[in-house]
Each structure stands twice: as C-alpha cells, then as structure tokens.
Amino acid sequence: MKTLQKNRHNFINVIATGAFMLAASVSFAQNKEKQSSPSDATLIRPYHISISQEAITDLRNRVNATRWPEKETVTDQAQGVKLDQIQNLVKYWGTDYDWHKTEDKLNALPQFVTNIDGLDIQFIHIKSKQKNALPLIITHGWPGSFFELLKVIGPLTDPTAYGGKAEDAFDLVIPSMPGYGFSEKPKGTGWGPEKIGNAWDVLMKRLGYKHYVSQGGDWGSVIADAMARQAPEGLLGIHVNMPATVPADIAKALKNGDSAPAGLSVKEKAAFNSLTKLYTKGGGYAGMMVTRPQTLGYGLTDSPVGLASFFLDKFNDWTYSGGNAEKSLTKDEMLDDISLYWLTNTANSSAQLYWENNNNNFNALEQKTADIKIPVAITVFPGEIYQAPKSWAEKAYKNLSYYNEVSKGGHFASWEEPQIFTVELRDAFRGLRGKH
C-alpha cells in the first residue's frame, strides 16, 4: 500500500506539470536556409511557410492506410477517444481536408523569424493602426499552437472594427515555443519555462518595445508566470487563464490521495474535485511526456492517427463541450493544429517541454507565485481543467489586479471564445495603459 501511495504521489507530481518525414524535413530545412545565415541570425527576418506537396500526399496516404484497433468496450469515453469519433475525423482528414488553404491563410499574416540563444524563433507580429497600442506577447500551449490565437488577432489589434474602442488596441506578438510549429527544435536540454520567458523578453525588446504585457494559457500561463517572476524591465503585467493558485495544504492532500480537507468553500471543493479527476483519470498523457517523451515520440511521429487521437482526447476533455470537441471547434480547426504538429515533425520535440519542466503547474508554491511582484490578471473559464477560486488566487498572487469568472469557454479559451477572451484582455490590461 505504501508503494502504491508513493507511486501515486510521484505520478501526480508528473502529470501536473519515412518518406514523408524526409520530404517535410527537407522542405522545412530549405525554407529556413533561404531565410537565414549566421551573419544575420539576430535580425528580424521575414518568414514564409512552404510545405511540400510530397509531404502532404504522404500524410494523406498514411491516414488512409490506418490499421484500426477494435471498438472500445464501454459506452462512454472512460477508455479514451471512441472509435467512431476518431474514424469520422480521420475520414475527413484523408479526403477533404486542405492544408494548402490553411497555409495560404497563415502566409497572409506578417510572419518573421529571429535567432535567440542559438535557436530560430518563428513568430507572427501584427502592429495596430491605432496610436499608443499596448504591446502584447501571447504564448500558446500544448497540444495547441498559434492556431489557438488567430481568431483574436483582429479584435485585439483593430478593436474599433470589433465593438471596442481605439484605446483598447494592442500590438500583437505570437511566437511559437522552441520545438513547436516552425520554431527551431532545441539541440540540447535547458529550454524550460524560465529560459523561454527570458527569450520572449529579448524578442520584445528586439522588436523595439520598451514596455509590454504578457498573456498565456496552458504552457503560456507557466511562461507568463516565469516572466513575472523574472520581472524584466518593461514588463508591466501578465494575464493568465490557467493560474497556479493551489495552496500547499491542498496540493499535499491531492498528492496523497486524501479526501478534500474540511472547511473548503463550495468553489474550493469544486476545484479540488476537478484536480482529483485530472490526477486519477486524465493525466496519463503528461505522465508519459514528463518521464518518457522520447519513447512516446516514436509512435506519435510515425502514426498520424496516433497523433490525432492523442490530441483529440485532450480537445474532448478540455473544451467547454461536454466531452465532444466538435461542439467547440470545427474539424478543420482541430486538423489545422494536428497537421501542423505532423508536418513540422514536432510531436516529440514539443513533448520534451514536459520533461524539462517536471513541476506541478497548478501548485502556487512550486510555481513560486509569491515571488511575483508585478500586476497579475486572471480569467477563469468554466471548461478549464480546474476553476481557480478567487480565495486561492488572492493568496497565490499578492498583486492580483484583476479576477473574473466568465460564462463560456474552456482550456483553449481564445480558440473557443475569441470575443470573451478579447474583452477579458481589454479589461485586464486597461489599468496598465498609459504606463508605456
């Protein structure tokens, strides 16, 4: 029993925290080689996405040649993604889905690349036409990407066209994390949240911004917290939608598999129950990535349907959809994201971030939120992994400047509810305008 309890303790710590491949790699490498050289590595260089037709054809062939397992033996999703659902998505992927349309949409945006600490970082940079727009860097998460954020580009940078005021405008910077999307993959260890946070400050200053704010969900929240702890000159404040608020005593009870402590409020008890569910039934994905990302990477890199089902499991769980992600996201939206990971061969490199971090990302003590002195804003979405109670948030973030609970949306907040997300950022950062 003690061994079981110890294993549970370790597991909970863990979870909270080819022809085609040759074609895709050659296309990607050639694209990067054309756009950079050692002499101009630190410059801001234009970036253009170009995935070869051979890679896209190979993806479709692999999808259509899938060897399927038998159907699940339960009527719900207790065993994972249901066979009918993944087959329906994959049938569309192998017939009607069009990556070229997506690529054209991306290439219509101002994309750039610059080298920071030896890695090429790809990012989208949209400057508002409004004077005194507040510079904002937003960081995506896993299994997301910059696709999470495309719907909020217009509302954030051009507010008057989306029901806002000119003074609500942001200049927007959307980078892909190292090992994700079209950013370069780390060649060694060390690229955890602290180093990424430092790189984002370098990026913002390289773009000429003396003052700015930072936002994130999922890994983006962890990185925003890291930036806030570092408090580089010019960072005015952060906004997160997956905050680290769990108090030490609650975290200990969760690790030990204890019942909820006495005296919790209704919202605190609900948060405790949500985290218990994650740790006991929903965290196997992270347990693998934290402990054995390389082993997991072979399957996700070789099988597009393996990758798609791994991601769809989280889309189902983490969207505000009652367990059916297609109520929150379209097939094309999900496949854009899944295809990005496949075509850039980043299933393995993205998982390595879990191995690098290996922290409980909900635990206020482990995330050192007490070290944060700059303003912190939090929005709680009802479909998030857990709904952080205000009582916990106020204890975790001593300089909590904004807290709000909204009525719709989940873990992929900006992707699911771009209008709500936009209004939240306008409100959260309004008090920091004029200080830049």
TrEMBL record:
Residue ranges of domain Epoxide hydrolase N-terminal in the record: 44-148
GO MF assignments: epoxide hydrolase activity
Keywords linked to the UniProt accession: Aromatic hydrocarbons catabolism, Hydrolase, Signal
GO biological process: epoxide metabolic process
Family annotation (Pfam families): EHN (PF06441)
Domain of life: Bacteria
InterPro entries attached to this UniProt entry: AB_hydrolase_fold, Epox_hydrolase-like, Epoxide_hydro_N, Epoxide_hydrolase
SUPFAM superfamilies membership: alpha/beta-Hydrolases
Active site (UniProt): 218 (nucleophile), 354 (proton donor), 411 (proton acceptor)
Gene3D superfamilies: alpha/beta hydrolase
UniProt entry tagged with the keyword Hydrolase: yes
Residues spanning the membrane: none
Signal sequence annotation: 1-29
Tagged with keyword Signal: yes
Sequence similarity: Belongs to the peptidase S33 family.
Matches recorded under PANTHER family: EPOXIDE HYDROLASE (PTHR21661:SF35), EPOXIDE HYDROLASE 1-RELATED (PTHR21661)
Protein name in the entry: Alpha/beta fold hydrolase
Organism name: Flavobacterium resistens
